Amino acid sequence: MSQDVSAGRSVVVVVPAHVVDDGSVRALVEAIERSTGAYDCPPPDEGTDLPGAVARLFGPPEAWRHSADPWRDLVRWPAWHGQPVLLRSWEHDLSVPLRRLPALLQEAGVAESERPVLIMVVCRRDVDERRLDHVDALTTGVHWWWGVLDRLDTEAFLAGGERRTDRDVLRRSVLAEVSAWSLELAAHLSSGWNGRVDQLHAAIQDFAGGEPVPAPPPAATAKRSSFPVAADRDAWDAGQVEQWDGRRRTVPWQVDDRRSLDTLVWRAQNRVLMPRVDEARAELEACFRRRASQSVVAEVSGRGDVLELGPMRWALGAFGVRLEPEDARRLRVLCELRNRLAHGSPADDALIASARPHLHT
After folding, report:
1. Which helix (H) or strand (E) element contains residue 106?
2. What is the gyration radius of the CA atoms in the chain, in angstroms?
3. Would you say 237 and 18 are in contact if contact means Cβ atoms under 8 Å apart?
4. Alpha-carbon distance 19 to 26, whole Å?
5. I want to staple 52 with a disulfide (CB 3.0 to 4.6 A). Which of 48, 104, 335, 348 is the partner?
6. What are the angstrom distances between the C-alpha of 249 and each of 133, 149, 215, 244, 259?
7. What is the pLDDT of residues 45-100, one digit of tens each?
8. Residue 24 zone, left/alpha/beta (φ > 0; ψ -120 to 50; rest)
9. Residue 75 and residue 66: Cα distance in Å, rounded?
10. What stretch(es) of the chain map to CATH 3.40.50?
11. Are 165 and 318 in contact (CB under 8 A)?
């Protein structure tokens, strides 16, 4: 966005209706002002049109209005050139600048670096949506508030403030995966969920207040995109659909589907636990090689150089390989954990509790 403004291009920022309704859009608008140095244009007074409200930021009306076409006069007024002005669609009627600004800029012949710039923060319900999909890309950049927050943002939020005391890496991973872009849900679960998988659904429903919400439509595409597809836009406006970590996501309290929640928990567990399981496997492999004959090791490894957990566990019974009791228990538990995760199922609380002493978590 800042690059567009620096290049003399106007900007349309499309935000979902729910952030306007709950007031959280204010933080976005303030961030835009800080990053671009834009002048914030207040709603026009009675008897003042939008061009007049913009012009008032830079000088008196008599300095710029010379014809019956105020937008044409304003675009040609040098006092505005190179100055970004921020407008909100819920405070101003932006239909005229969205329709006419590109042609007026080309007609005025102003150098790109000196063009007057509008930063229009818009909500779909306030504008003709067809304009958003057919804006002149040479003069105006369109940015949808879609996929803005990513995994790092959620994890950074969970690592900050009072939440910094949570040193359970697995719990934080589950919190981030489940909450996705909803920092409100992340804060709620961070303080209200005890970390047990079997109580996660109840903690989410507690946040949602138990109110049923219709499920969004199924995904039209799984590809990462820079804007929501048409079929998703109503759900996006309502805060039900977003793009997070490169995936189209629905917030978990809006679809009462345990399998979907299980998938999220599995992803989080897989991300944290599988690398640690592999570290433990390497340690157990060293123990196994010291206890087993070369022929047994060759049988277990097959054609590879790595001894996997399953074949090592099988060899304990098949060939009578005797590990230390603690190592044998570790092998059994980690083999069960890896098999569960490898088949796409989340580990339950009992299995996690059994595995924790054997992993570097």
Report:
1. helix 95-108
2. 29
3. yes
4. 9
5. 48
6. 23, 12, 12, 6, 14
7. 887 899 999 999 998 767 787 888 999 999 999 999 999 999 999 999 999 999 99
8. alpha
9. 12
10. 2-144
11. no
Work out the number of other CB atoms within 10 angstroms of the CB of residue 3.
9
Tell me the CATH number for domain 2-144.
3.40.50
The 10s digit of each residue's pLDDT in 126-172 is 999 988 888 888 889 999 999 999 999 999 999 885 555 456 899 99
Q: Would you call 168 helix, strand, or coil by DSSP?
A: coil
Strands 247-250 and 241-244, sheet pairing: antiparallel
From 237, 239, 241, select the one nearest 220 (Cα to Cα).
241
Token pair of 261, please? 């929640």
Comparing CA positions, the residue from 254, 208, 250 lying closest to residue 228 is 250
Q: Which structure tokens are listed for 283?
A: 């340690």
d(CA 94, CA 110) in angstroms, rounded, equals 22
